[in-house]
Write a structure and sequence with these properties.
The complex is a heterotetramer.
Chain B lengths: L1 E7 L13 H30 L13 H26 L2 H28 L8 H31 L7 H30 L4
Helix pairs in contact in B: 1-4, 1-5, 2-3, 2-5, 3-4, 4-5
Chain C lengths: L22 H10 L5 H6 L3 H30 L9 H36 L7 H23 L24 H29 L12 H32 L13 H35 L6 H14 L15 H13 L1 H17 L6 H24 L1 H7 L3 H31 L5 H27 L16 H31 L37 H4 L3 E6 L7 E5 L6 E6 L6 H15 L6 H17 L10
Antiparallel strand pairs in C: 2-3
Chain D lengths: L5 H7 L17 H33 L9 H40 L7 E8 L2 E6 L8 E4 L1 E5 L4 E7 L4 E3 L8 E3 L5 E5 L5 E6 L12 E7 L1 H12 L8 H12 L2 H4 L23 E2 L4 E2 L2 H9 L1 H4 L12 H13 L2
Parallel strand pairs in D: 1-5, 4-10
Antiparallel strand pairs in D: 1-2, 2-3, 5-8, 6-7, 9-10, 11-12
Helix pairs in contact in D: 2-3, 5-9, 7-9
Classes of the chains: A mainly alpha, B mainly alpha, C mainly alpha, D alpha+beta.
Chain lengths: ~180, ~200, ~650, ~325
């Protein structure tokens, strides 16, 4: 009795993990196209992007493979040049949970794609839409107060911030004692 | 096949101590396994130290006081431990009870001091490899104190029940004492490694 | 619970009145039996029931791993095949390797030991039988975890060796590598538990008179295996724990930028990984040494050299790990040392081969199925040993390392050196386990199909490797010219699969309809044949006394036994380590459900700690409770002394 | 027993595998030649030992009768003889093993020799391609290329092997044994190519999802040809010749391509993917996946994840014209 109930529980827990591990290297072209259909002002003057668009970002936030791709891009495209591994330098901090343009994925997506005043360059010509979504997903895990199970871990590099799976990030971020 | 009886073993004792006891051998085997675990952890420590440009890496040497206090407490606890072993051998229920209570306290004390020992390492487990191996060494040893204390507490509780006055329980008390020596002894090389090597 | 007073310290001598002929048997059966019912089945501590479960489970994993192998062969049958995606293929070869090593080969050798060591040394149950029950459940849960993860696309895809940094936090996203690392923890816990049981059983529970020079060779082999498990497995547990800590809490053991080291992983892994091969191989050669006399009708030639060879191989195998790292650029001098030590192990291996050859030479071989497997072993294993000498040479290894040459080599050694003897041993001991013979006719087909199928599948891989085909590739370009031979290999692998299929069919058939075997169908010489087939729950009505290394051959007519053991409680004999003089009449634990609960608590803790380090803290609470439940005295007669 | 006859069959098989452009049995370099000799020494010795063991086994099975009524003395004598035979066999094993160990030690010593005038090239493994740097004392004469190595015949080469991510292993079986590329370490491989030709190398250490498609071409050529190639590589990218190619260059610079790839002499200066300055002159693209043609370039750019699933090149959305143009341009970059 107990064993079967336990097995069921474990099974369900694992089933939830299922989607997190899927590795989709190639989005179907129509989906990829749809994912680019994010407009700053959907009705021409103002307005919020449709919820469906935001929901598309979910696939990138809860999937371990996509998050690790986002992390790779963060490094490859030198985001730390301004944001210093999320701690903030000439660009704003990315791991304190405070987002200048709002914490929703669409805002983050737009910040990367179209750039923002005072120095954030647009990346629409450097990254594909899929990659921008991957980066968005990764950035959301940076400031999370509880770590997602799909979250990435530390890099094989100098240690400059706590691993992403150690949330809340800010709490564990102590300066290194000097020798 | 037909049997022919060649000996009557009715006269054999019903429980043996030391090398005639299975649990003694089991304890020994566990100590061997865990001892190898400790040796490997120490080997990893020395390996990392040998490839590092300087040691300790990016941190001041650990503050030695809590570790030294623990070493002293552990070494001192060897005395009541030895007594418990002897009393158990003599099957003296009252003294074994008292001894086990003392040993429970003697086990909990170093655990309390250990709360201050982790910060005294002056490095976090996720700062660098030096911090990682330090935390693992200390964590590994703490786990051993913890399990032995749990074992001692349960055994103490058993001793105060009707199951206490039994040769088997005295054997358990002896094996528990044997294991505590192991916990004390393993601390010494770890202590030397953690606090001595960075100061070489 | 009150018992009639005459039950207190009732001994077998009291039942010898002759009024009821089988009073003793019935009494013993009542004390040692496992009653029917699910709870009782989960509570049993009978080494035969646990051993049988262990063997069956290991063979189920063998079959599953074989399915993966066939998938790989299907994929590689033609160049640039798209049958499996690279992501899936990487999981498939990783799980094939991890499954075969950790869930089949090592456990099946332990499983055979759990079943047969007590019978071979003449005792009533294994030492610490509850630990055995716990070990089985942990093994079952850990193995299931790996396969469930695979079904859920969470299967490890980093190779069975999980080299960092590929398996590390940066390059292996998700929980796949953690599943691998925790599967290691599961299987090592269970292996270490069994190792302790074997060591104590062999050292302290041998039948009176079974001095060190009368121990059956397979028991020696299991003893060496158990010690090797104790010495080697902590290394891989250390390594996998460090990996999981690196991934989960951000430690830096393998991060070169923060003082860690990538090769540290390889040192630790192979310090375990090389002895691992011998952990699998030594019991298999022990089985040969024990089976051979029954088929050549004479005692083994060179008992002492064979024991020494086992011990030497066990010892030397700890000095060879670097030969898995010859291409990593370690200092030349060290590499030469490891070349020499790797080759030196050929000497004890040779001693064994020569002793067996002499035994066959001096005897009169009977070509029964187990003997056919021994012959297949000779052909295959010696060839694998020869390629082993080749890969032990540093310069040669730089050409063949990580190619199909090595794939061929270790399949020759592991299938030829361990699986063939194991299958022979199954044919040999099946009658003891079930009371029924396996089919001689089907057995010949099985042996033939496996022998031919195996050699035609794996021999060409040597050539493929020399032609440049590297390991662990899901596809290869047509222009490489490997297509033809790969197709040949894939076709021949079907013969091998058919051999295994036939073997399983024979098992199922014989278990129900096989010819009744009798106590000693092979007229063999060791103690397990002195009792009925299948053995009763108490193994032996009376504990036998051993006067030679081949007790059943040298004691014509009747078996010397001892009397005086209690029959009102589970009692067995503790004897001296050296010459097995009786020391104590010790009790053996009763059935208990707690090991099962403890295994569940352990599994919950281990699986949850893949996801959060805090699981170690809260998971320890139920574990502690179950352990207290396990060890808390019950006031049963077994608790008396 | 036919077990004794089978080995001969098997012995014939390896002869079939004596040639190939990625084969250890077809040595074309100093190290590979040395190893090839050693390989046959080991193979012949081991085969002889294996054959001897099986012959003894066959003989033991053949004489299987042994009359039951054999005398004690006879039995004891044959046991004694067996003991002596075992002793002799063990002694022979020790001698053979020692000899082979010594031979392999000598070979190791011969291989590791360094040459002061060696051509030094740095090869760096990436998930799943190779970066090749021809260093030069004059910085402007140093250049980067990818997935193709050109070597002058007869001159010793010193390869400095490193990795940018996980462990890879560099292996050109026709020229030398393999050497791993390990994070945090640098390994060196020294050998001398002896015969001109094109050889193939492949990553030998499992390195992730596309480990199977991480190949490298090694072109060994006459020193004059090598120098000509080298000068061509040092030069900047060829200018576009047709309007279509000009459009291709613009796509290269304005779309995401330039963020990862460099074409020297244009605005494309990314350093994350292979250097494409002379991509049209290389034999293959995508680390040995496809031959370099305009068509395969277009196929690769249009859908890299179908050609090589899981690799790090994204599918950049391009119109048909843009795709045509950019592949025409890249094919032109010889």
């Amino acid at each position: 009795m107990m064993a079967s109930r336990f097995a069921l529980l474990a099974f369900l827990a694992l089933l939830a993990g299922c989607k997190r591990e899927e590795r989709e290297a190639r989005l179907a072209p129509p989906i990829a196209e749809a994912q680019g259909a994010v407009l700053v002002m959907p009705n021409g003057i103002s307005g919020r992007p449709h919820d469906v668009i935001a929901a598309q970002g979910d696939a990138f936030r809860n999937n371990a493979y996509q998050l690790s791709q986002g992390k790779r891009l963060f490094e490859w495209f030198n985001c730390q040049g301004c944001h210093a591994d999320g701690g903030g330098a000439s660009g704003p901090a990315l791991m304190n949970g405070w987002w200048r343009y709002g914490p929703d994925p669409v805002s983050i997506f737009l910040s990367i794609r179209d750039g923002r005043p005072n120095g954030m360059p647009p990346y629409r010509d450097k990254l594909t839409t899929e990659q921008i979504w991957q980066l968005t997903g990764y950035l959301q895990t940076l400031g999370a107060s509880t770590a997602s199970l799909a979250s990435t871990s530390r890099n094989d590099a100098m240690h400059s911030r706590p691993a992403e799976n150690r949330a809340p990030a800010q709490a564990g971020h102590t300066t290194r004692p000097s020798p | 096949m037909k049997h022919r009886i060649v000996a009557d073993l009715s006269g054999l004792p019903l429980h043996g101590a030391g090398s005639s006891s299975q649990t003694w051998w089991g304890t020994l085997a566990f100590m061997l396994i865990e001892g190898i675990g400790f040796v490997l952890a120490l080997a990893v420590y020395l390996y990392l130290a040998s490839i590092a440009p300087q040691w300790p890496l990016g941190a001041p040497p650990p503050d030695p006081w809590p570790g030294t206090i623990i070493a002293a407490l552990l070494l001192l606890s060897a005395i009541p431990n030895w007594l418990v072993g002897r009393w158990a051998e003599a099957q003296d229920l009252r003294k074994v009870r008292i001894g086990l209570v003392i040993m429970s306290v003697a086990g909990i004390l170093p655990l309390i001091v250990r709360i201050w020992e982790f910060p005294a390492l002056n490095v976090s487990w996720d700062s660098n490899a030096y911090g990682s191996i330090l935390w693992i060494l200390l964590g590994l040893h703490t786990a051993h104190i913890l399990t032995d204390v749990m074992d001692t507490l349960v055994l103490t509780a058993v001793m105060f029940t009707r199951h206490g006055d039994n040769k088997r329980r005295y054997g358990d008390a002896q094996d528990n004492a044997l294991y505590w020596y192991f916990v004390v002894l393993t601390w010494l090389p770890i202590y030397l490694c953690i606090y001595g090597v960075p100061r070489l | 619970m009150t018992r009639p007073p005459e039950d207190r310290d009732l001994r077998d001598t009291a039942l010898d009145t002759g009024q009821e002929p089988d009073a003793l048997e019935r009494r013993l059966a009542r004390i040692w039996r496992t009653p029917p019912g699910l709870v009782n089945a989960l509570s049993t501590v009978d080494h035969k029931i646990i051993g049988r479960r262990y063997i069956v489970t290991a063979f189920v994993f063998l079959a599953l791993g074989g399915v993966l192998a066939m998938l790989m062969r299907l994929q590689l049958a033609q160049p640039e095949s798209r049958f499996l995606s690279p992501d899936l293929y990487n999981q498939v070869f990783t799980i094939h390797g991890a499954n075969m090593m950790f869930l089949f080969a090592v456990p099946v050798m332990e499983a055979m030991a759990i079943y047969f060591v007590p019978l071979l040394v003449g005792t009533r149950n294994i030492a610490f039988p509850r630990l055995g029950a716990f070990s089985y459940w942990v093994y079952l849960f850990g193995g299931s975890m790996l396969w469930i993860a695979f079904i859920l696309q969470m299967g490890p895809d980093v190779g069975w060796f999980a080299y960092v940094p590929l398996a590390g936090p940066q390059y292996s996203s998700g929980k796949r590598a953690d599943i691998w690392a925790q599967m290691i923890t599961f299987t090592e816990i269970s292996a270490l538990a069994v190792a302790i049981e074997i060591v104590v059983t062999v050292l302290k529970q041998r039948a009176p008179g079974m001095s060190l020079d009368r121990i059956p060779l397979v028991v020696w082999a299991w003893l060496v295996m158990a010690f090797m498990i104790i010495m080697a497995m902590p290394a891989v547990v250390t390594a996998s724990s460090m990996l999981i800590l690196d991934r989960l809490v951000g430690t830096h053991f393998f991060n070169p930028a923060e003082g860690g080291d990538v090769l540290l992983w390889q040192h630790l892994f192979w310090f375990f990984g090389h002895p691992e091969v011998y952990i699998i191989f030594l019991p298999a050669v022990g089985m040969i040494s024990t089976m051979l006399p029954a088929f050549v009708r004479r005692p083994i030639f060179g008992y002492l050299p064979l024991v020494m060879a086992l011990l030497t191989m066990g010892l030397l195998s700890f000095g060879l790990w670097v030969h898995h790292m010859f291409t990593t650029g370690l200092p030349r001098l060290g590499e030469s040392f490891f070349t020499a030590s790797s080759m030196a192990i050929a000497v004890p291996a040779g001693v064994q081969i020569f002793c067996w050859l002499a035994t066959i030479w001096l005897g009169r071989p009977a070509f029964r199925v187990p003997f056919l497997f021994i012959l297949a072993f000779f052909f295959t294993f010696v060839l694998g040993g020869m390629t082993g000498v080749m890969v032990a040479s540093v310069p040669l290894d730089t050409q063949v390392h990580d190619t199909y040459f090595v794939v061929a080599h270790f399949h020759y050694v592991l299938v030829g050196g361990a699986v063939f003897p194991l299958l022979g041993a199954i044919y040999y001991w099946f009658p003891k386990i079930t009371g029924r013979m396996m089919s001689e006719r089907i057995g010949r087909w099985v042996a033939g199909l496996l022998f031919l199928g195996f050699n035609f599948t794996f021999f060409p891989m040597h050539i493929l490797g020399l032609q440049g085909m590297t390991r662990r590739i899901y596809a290869y370009p047509a222009e490489m010219g490997w297509g033809g031979m790969n197709l040949f290999v894939s076709l021949c692998s079907v013969a091998m699969a058919a051999g295994f299929l036939l073997f399983f069919i024979d098992i199922f058939r014989s278990a129900r309809h096989g010819e009744p075997a009798g106590d000693n169908p092979w007229e063999a010489s060791t103690l397990e044949w002195a009792t009925s087939s299948p053995p009763p729950p108490y193994n032996f009505v009376r504990i036998p006394v051993v006067t030679s290394a081949s007790p059943l051959w040298d004691e014509k007519g009747s078996l010397p036994v001892v009397s005086g053991l209690a029959v009102n409680r589970r009692e067995l004999l503790i004897t001296g380590m050296g010459n097995a003089t009786p020391e104590v009449r010790e009790t053996s634990p009763q059935n208990s459900i707690w090991p099962f609960f403890a295994a569940i608590a352990t599994s919950v803790m281990l699986v949850a700690s893949i996801f959060t380090p805090w699981a170690v803290v809260w998971g320890a609470i139920p574990l502690t409770i179950t352990l207290i439940g396990w060890f808390w005295p019950r006031g049963t007669p077994e608790d008396d002394s | 027993m036919n077990t004794a006859r089978l080995p001969h069959l098997f012995l014939l098989l390896p002869l079939a595998g004596c040639s190939g452009w990625q084969s250890a049995l077809d040595p074309r370099g100093s190290t590979a030649e040395e190893l090839h000799g050693l390989f046959w020494l080991f193979t012949i010795t081991c085969t002889a030992v294996w054959g001897a063991v099986l012959l003894v086994l066959a003989a033991a099975l053949w004489r299987r009768r042994h009359p039951a009524g054999i005398s004690e003395a006879q039995q004891a004598r044959s046991e004694r003889r067996s003991g002596v035979a075992i002793g002799a066999a063990v002694a022979a094993t020790v001698v053979i093993i020692t000899g082979l160990t010594f031979a392999s030690y000598l070979a190791t010593r011969g291989i590791a020799e360094e040459h002061p005038e060696a051509l030094t090239i740095r090869v760096r493994g990436y998930q799943w391609w190779w970066e090749v740097l021809y260093a030069d004392s004059a910085p402007h004469r140093a250049f980067l290329t990818a997935n193709e190595l050109h070597l002058p015949v007869g001159r010793p080469v010193r390869l400095e092997l490193a990795t940018a991510d996980v462990i890879h292993s560099f292996w050109v079986p026709n020229l030398a044994g393999k050497q791993d590329m390990i994070p945090g370490r640098e390994n060196v491989l020294v050998f001398t190519p002896r015969e001109p030709g094109t050889y193939r190398a492949q990553c030998a250490e499992f390195c992730g999802i596309q480990h199977a498609h991480m190949a490298l071409r090694i072109v060994v050529e006459a020193p004059a040809d090598f120098e000509r190639w080298r000068e061509a590589q040092i030069a900047e990218a060829a200018p576009p010749m047709t309007p279509e190619e000009e459009a291709g260059r613009q796509v290269m610079e304005s779309k995401a391509c330039g963020a990862c790839h460099t074409v020297r002499g244009t605005a494309a200066a990314g350093t994350l993917g292979p250097d494409l300055t002379h991509v049209g002159g290389r034999q293959t693209i995508a680390a040995g996946m496809l031959p370099t043609t305009r068509g395969s370039l277009a196929a690769w750019i249009a859908d890299p994840q179908t050609v090589k699933p899981g690799n790090n090149m994204p599918m950049v959305p391009l119109t048909a014209e843009e795709l045509q143009a950019v592949s025409a341009y890249l094919a032109r970059l010889r």
